[in-house]
């Protein structure tokens, strides 16, 4: 199931590397809504919802370089349910999001986007090679069908 979350980062993203060498950053997005309470005639904040999100590979690197605590973000991804058994044999279930895209929210901020060129395309992994300066790139990522290159 794909979902969209709009909220604020609760901490700075930190890059980690798994035992298998995959890069990941785990972020938490806090989302709450402000609404007008007609009974009291005042604006109120709803209870916040905190969503744990896993950002993988190159996007994890970009998130660490670009995003900071308190920034508004828009996240799309797939809900995942995980079960963990602790040392006492108790099984706990939690839900998180495997991020497919993340961006700063422009509702109350401005952002500068810097496109990164990559030297080698590896379609099997869905990941391009090492970043290079745009004028040094020998190949570029193939355009996705139906997309407009920019």
Give structural notes.
The chain is mainly β and 150 residues long. It has a single domain, classed as OB fold (Dihydrolipoamide Acetyltransferase, E2P), CATH 2.40.50.140. Helix content is 7%, strand content 47%. It has one helix spanning 57-66; strands at 2-9, 16-17, 23-31, 34-37, 42-45, 49-56, 72-85, 91-104, 117-118, 121-122, 127-128, 131-132. The strands form four sheets. The protein has a five-stranded mixed barrel. The protein is flat and about 55 Å long. The two termini are 29 Å apart.
Task: Summarize the SSE layout with pairings.
Elements (H helix, E strand, L loop, with lengths): L1 E8 L6 E2 L5 E9 L2 E4 L4 E4 L3 E8 H10 L5 E14 L5 E14 L12 E2 L2 E2 L4 E2 L2 E2 L18
Parallel strand pairs: 6-8
Antiparallel strand pairs: 1-3, 1-7, 2-3, 3-6, 4-5, 7-8, 9-12, 10-11
GO molecular function: single-stranded DNA binding
GO biological process, one term: DNA replication
Organism: Nocardia macrotermitis
The tally of strands reads: 12
Poorly predicted residue ranges = 136-143
Strand order of the largest sheet: 1-3-6-8-7
Percentage of helical residues?
under 10%
Beta-strand level of the residues, as a percent range? over 45%
For the record, what CATH class applies? Mainly Beta
N-C termini distance: 29 Å
**Fourth-level CATH superfamily:** Nucleic acid-binding proteins
Outline, from the CA principal axes?
A: flat
Number of helices: 1
Mean pLDDT: 84
């Amino acid at each position: 199931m794909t979902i969209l979350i709009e909220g604020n980062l609760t901490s700075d993203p930190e890059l980690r590397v798994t035992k298998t060498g995959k890069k990941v950053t785990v972020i938490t997005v806090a989302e709450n809504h402000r609404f007008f309470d007609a009974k009291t005639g005042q604006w109120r904040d709803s209870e916040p919802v905190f969503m744990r999100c896993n950002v993988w590979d190159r996007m994890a690197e970009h998130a660490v370089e670009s995003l900071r605590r308190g920034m508004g973000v828009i996240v799309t991804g797939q809900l995942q349910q995980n079960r963990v058994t602790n040392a006492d044999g108790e099984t706990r279930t939690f839900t998180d999001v495997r991020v497919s895209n993340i961006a700063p929210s422009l509702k109350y901020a401005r952002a500068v986007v810097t496109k990164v060129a990559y030297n080698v395309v590896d379609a099997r992994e869905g990941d391009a090679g090492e970043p290079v300066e745009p004028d040094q790139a020998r190949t570029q990522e193939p355009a996705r069908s139906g997309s407009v290159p920019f």
